[in-house]
Amino acid sequence: MSETTAPKSPVTAAQFADEIREQLTYHQGVTVAQATPADVYVAASLAVRRHLMDAWMTTQAEMVNGHTKAVGYLSAEFLMGKQLRNALLNAGLTEQFDEAVKELGFDYQDVIDAEHEPGLGNGGLGRLAACFIDSLASIGVPAFGYGIQYQYGIFEQEFDEQGRQIERPDYWLTNDEPWGHVDYNRSQKVSFGGTVVENADGTKAWKPAWSVRAVPVDYMVPGYKSGRVNTLRLWRAKSYDEFDLLTFNKSEYLDAVKPQVKAENISKILYPEDSTPEGKALRLEQQYFFVSASIHDAIRVFYPGQDKPDLTTFPDKITFQLNDTHPVIGIPELMRVMIDEYGYDWDTAWSVTTKTFNYTCHTLLPEALEVWPASLIGELLPRHLEIIERIERQFEAELVAKGVDAAQIERMKIYTGDAVRMAYLATYGGSHVNGVAELHSELLKDVTLKDFSDTYPDKFANVTNGVTPRRFVKLANPRLSDLITEGLGTDKWLTDLEMLKGLAPLANDDEFVKKFAAVKQANKVDFANYAKREYGFDLDPNTMFNTMVKRLHEYKRQSLKILALIARYADIKSGKVSADDVMPRTVIFGAKAAPGYYLAKMTIQLINNVARVVNNDPDVKGKLNVYFPWNYNVRLAQHLIPATDLDEQISQAGKEASGTGNMKFALNGALTVGTLDGANVEIRERVGAENFFLFGMTVDEVEAQYANGYNPARYYESDPRLKAAIDMVSDGTFSDGDRNTYAPLVADWLTKDWFMTLADFTAYAAIQGEIEALYAQPLEWHRKAILNVANSGYFSSDRSIEDYLERIWHTGSMA
Ligand SMILES: *Cc1c(COP(=O)(O)O)cnc(C)c1O
Predict the structure, then answer these.
(1) Is residue 751 part of a domain?
(2) Tell me, what's the pLDDT at 66?
(3) pLDDT of residue 759
(4) What is the pLDDT of residue 262?
(5) Phi, psi (rounded to 5 degrees) for 534
(6) Which sequence positions carry the modification called N6-(pyridoxal phosphate)lysine (predicted)?
(7) CATH number at residue 608
(8) Closest listed residue to residue 121, CA positions, set 155, 91, 98, 153
(9) What's the confidence (pLDDT) of residue 240?
(10) Exactly one of 213, 550, 635, 686 is catalytic; which is it?
C-alpha cells in the first residue's frame, strides 16, 4: 500500500536494511538467517529510535532553556496502541521500512504483528491521553506525559464455551520492549505512612515509614512533521530493600522479599475499572506514587543542579493538567514539597500551586466522583491530610467572606472530616476546570459542580475532546487517506484537519463518490480477511457492517442494540417479516467488561449466545449475522473502524461525557445512529442533522422521567416487539433452554432499568427502517458519509490542544 503522504527521511531502504542488520548483530547477537519476525521488530524499532534521538535531545534541551512554558499531562492511563508504525510515519521511514524488511526476507505484516500493544489504559480516558501527547508533539508544544508503567495492563479478554468473559493477565513486558528506556539514574524516592512531628521552630516534618524507588521509563513521542520529539515518562516501582539479610539468614526466604514485593506491587497492575470508583489503598498508593515522582522530576528538569531553586517561577516553567481526579493528590503534594522541602510559607506555596494545576473532569454522576476515606489518607499520607485540613479551613473562610450561605458551604466541603472529595479539591486547588464536550461542560456547571460554578464561574471552561488523525486516519485507513489527498490536492490536512471541508463539494461528484465507496468496500474485504485470520469468523463484506465498540457499561446501552437485534430475529422467526425483505446486516460488537461488573458480564454472555443462535439459524442465513471479536483494543479499533458503515453511539442522554469513538467513526466515513449525548451533539451539528440518525430522549426528557418515577414495565407491556425480544431472552432461546441464565438481567430491565433502555427502544427500532432505506441507495449513503468526513475536522485532537493552549494553559509551541 502506498504511503505517499509521509514526510520522507533521506535514508534509503538499503541503508535502513543495514541499520536493522546492525541492530540484529550488535544489540541482539543474531544473524539475519537466525532472526525471527520478533527479532526484526525489535531491531527495526531500535533503528527508528536512533533516527529520533537527536530530535528528542534537542527538544528536551530547548524546553529547559527556552521561554515556552511546558505542559505536564498527568494521567493514570495512556492507551498508546502499537508504536512501530506510528514512529515510522513520524520519522518518515515507512516506505524504507517496507522495502528493507522485504530485502531482509521478511513479511511486513509479520514484523508489525510481533509488537504487543501496551494496554496501559481502560478505554476512552487513556486513549484521549495518548491522542493528546501525539498532538502536543505534532503542534510543537514542549510536553511531558506522566503516568505509570504498569507491569500488567488491561486484561486480555477471551470467551469460554458458554460465551462468558474470561480475563487473562496481559504479559506485555515478557518480551523485549524496545520503546521504553529505563533510566535508573533519574529515579525518585516516594514515601508513605509514618507520622508527622513538629520541629523546634514550629515547622512540620513528615517521618515516613517506608519508601519506594520510582524509576522512569521514557518513551519517545514524535510529532508528525514537527521535528519535535516529546517524552512520555512512565514510572516503575522498585524496592530499596532488595533483601533483608537478617531475615534471610533465618532462612525465611519469602519473608525476606516481602518488602520488595509490597513496593513493587505499586506499579504491578492497572485497575480494570472504567468510571466506577474503587476504594483500594493500592490505588491511592499508585496515584501518589506517580504524581509525587513527576513533581520532583519536573523540579529536577527545570532547575537543573540547583539546591535552592526559585519555585515561585514554577508555574512559568510547567502547567500540570490533571486527567480526571486520579492525580489530584498532586495539589497537597506540591504544597508539601514547597513548604517542607524548600521552606516556603503557606501563601506562597498556595499561590504557586493554584497557578500550576488545572483539572479535566470526565464524570457526570455526582456519586461517581472520587472520594477517599480520610482514615486511609491519614494512614498513607499523614502530612497530606494535615495540608488538606488547612486547605479546607482556608476554603471555608473564603466562602464565608464571599457571603456563601452555610448550607452551601456544607455541601461544598472538600474535607468532611470523614472523607476527601478529590474533584472539589481539584476545582478549588487549580486555575481551571474543564468538561470534555459542550453538553458535558454545561451539565458540570448546572449539576455536578453547580455550587462551585456559582461561586467561581471564571474557573469553568469547555474543551471538546478529539482524536489524532495520524493514527486514526492515516495509519488506520491508508486508502481513505490517499483519496482525501487526491481530492484536496495536498496532504496538509493531516496537520490541519479543518481542510477536510474541501471534500464537501466532492459529495456531489459521482466519480468521487464511487471512489469513496470503493475504498469502504476494500476496507470491508480487508477486515473480513483479518477477522478470518484472527478469529476464524466468516464475515460477508457485501452486507452492511454495523459496529458497536466501546467498554461494556449499562449507560452505554449495548442492551438496547442487542434487544433490537433480537426483535428483528423474532420478526423473521415468527414470519411477521419475510427473510427476503430483510436488508442483510453484519453486526459487530467489541467490549470488555470490568471483571467485577456482573450485569455487564452477563450482557457479554447474552451477545455471544445471540450470535451463536442467529449465525447457525438457516432461517436468517445471510440476513442477520452477529460477531463479537474478543479483546477490543486499539489494534482492533484501527482495523474495524475504517470498515464500518454504521456505528452506534446510543448512550442514555446525559451520561457519556464526550465519547471519542464517535469521532473516529465519523472521520472514517461511517454514518452514526445516536442519541443527543456527549460529543454526538456537536458531531451532528457539524455534519448536518440530515447526515446523522438521531433518536431517543433528550437530557431533559430523561430528567423528567426520573422525576416522575420511571417504570420500565410500562414499555415492556406497550411495545409488542420489545416484549417479544425480552421474552426470548427469558425463555431460554439463547441459553439452550435454561430459563435462569439471564434472569438477573431480565429482572433488572423490567424493574429497574436505570439507564432507560426500554424507554428508548421503540424510537431506536423505528429509525432502523430509515437507515435501511438509505443504505439501499449506495450513492446517497456514501454522499452522506463523505459529508461526515468533510465536516469532522473539528474533532482532531490538534484542535483540542489548541483550545487548551488558548483557554487554559496560556502557552504555545516552541519557536
Ligand atoms: C476510542 C477508543 C475507546 C473509546 O471509545 P468510546 O466509544 O468513546 O467509549 C475505547 N477503547 C479503544 C481501544 C479506543 O480506541
Answers:
(1) yes
(2) 83
(3) 98
(4) 80
(5) -85, -35
(6) 664
(7) 3.40.50.2000
(8) 153
(9) 86
(10) 550
Task: In whole angstroms, give the CA distance from residue 76 to residue 284.
Answer: 11
Q: Is the pTM of this model over 0.90?
A: yes
The pLDDT assigned to 4 comes to: 35
Q: What is the pLDDT of residue 1?
A: 33
Check if 664 is active-site: yes
CA distance 45 to 97: 10
Residues 6+ apart with CB under 8 A from 286: 76, 148, 266, 267, 271
CA distance 723 to 716: 5
Q: How confident is the model at residue 5, as a pLDDT?
A: 38
In this prediction, residue 263 carries a pLDDT of 85
What is the C-alpha separation between 746 and 694, in angstroms, rounded? 27
362 is an active site residue? yes
268 is catalytic: no
Q: Minimal CA–CA distance to 356: which of 302, 300, 316, 308?
A: 316
Q: What's the confidence (pLDDT) of residue 756?
A: 98
Q: State if residue 82 touches ligand 1 by the CB under 6 angstroms criterion.
A: no
Give nearest CA residue, ligand 1 atom 5. 661
Known catalytic membership, residue 27: no
Alpha carbon separation from 469 to 473, 494, 519, 634 (Å, rounded): 5, 6, 17, 14
Going from the Cα of 119 to the center of ligand 1, the distance in angstroms, rounded, reads 12
Residues 606-639 pLDDT 10s: 999 999 999 999 999 899 999 999 999 999 999 9
* List of long-range contacts for 448-454, beta carbons under 8 Å, 24+ apart: 448/361, 448/363, 448/364, 448/365, 448/366, 448/369, 449/361, 449/423, 451/408, 451/411, 451/412, 452/412, 452/424, 452/427, 452/428
Tell me the C-alpha distance between 580 and 583, whole Å: 8
Q: Is residue 503 part of a domain?
A: yes
Cβ atoms of 437 and 418 within 8 Å: the answer is no
Q: Is 703 part of a structural domain of the chain?
A: yes
The total domain count for the chain is 1
Q: List C-alpha distances in Å: 193 to 76, 206, 209, 379.
A: 22, 9, 5, 6
Instruction: Give the domain range for residue 633.
Output: 469-795
Condensed to tens digits (0 to 9), the pLDDT of residues 261-296 reads: 788 899 999 997 755 666 688 999 999 999 999 999
> Is residue 316 included in any domain, yes or no?
no
Instruction: Give the CA distances from residue 128 to residues 131, 319, 327, 663, 810, in Å, rounded to whole numbers and listed in that order.
Output: 5, 18, 16, 12, 21
- Of 608, 574, 742, whose CA–CA distance to 159 is shortest? 608
Residues of the chain with pLDDT under 50: 1-6
